[in-house]
Amino acid sequence: MKYERIKPFFGDNFSKLQNAKVLLLGVGGVGGHCLDCLSRSGVANITIVDYDTYDLSNQNRQMWSELHEGEIKVESLKKHYPHIKSINAKIDEQWVWDFNFDEYDLVLDAIDDIKAKLALAQKCHKKLISSLGSAKRLDPTKVQVGDIWKSYGDKFGSKIRYELKKRGFNKKYKVIFSAEEAKVKEKGSFIGVTATFGLVMCSEAVKKIVSK
Fold it and tell me: Residue 184 and residue 124: Cα distance in Å, rounded?
């Protein structure tokens, strides 16, 4: 049976996982592993949003990318997770302001667009779990969870905090971040860290769902 090992783990709370409505924004190196973890954990109602296609450069860190080069991510992922709903859309600031988040219990942010991340914080911080920078790092044991104002060691996170303050935003929401200093200046990522971000995001989502 598919959930034979996880149903006893959660007991009566397993039904909460099956009934929760989760919105996952971005299904790249972080979001793809989060999606896989959520699905294997019994979360049945997942909507994913992304606009990108798989290319050769994704194959060091993104699940299923080697099987679907050139294909649209959200459509390809439905082949592996047929229970999910998908939206093929570019998540920018305007998309966030226009989208209705009311039906979702949790919003998981695995995108890179800083203006969209700021809008997400302003619009749905109460049900938001956000990933900060996972690239350029090597040590998965440095990945941490905290509220946005207590995160550190990440220039991307620092810029987000600065911009939120400029907008007069002072609410708390949960973020996944790494305290490890970047190892390179140019683009680069290691699946050991990006996948850890995704798995930690999944864990935090599951904990939040079953605690309600």
Answer: 33
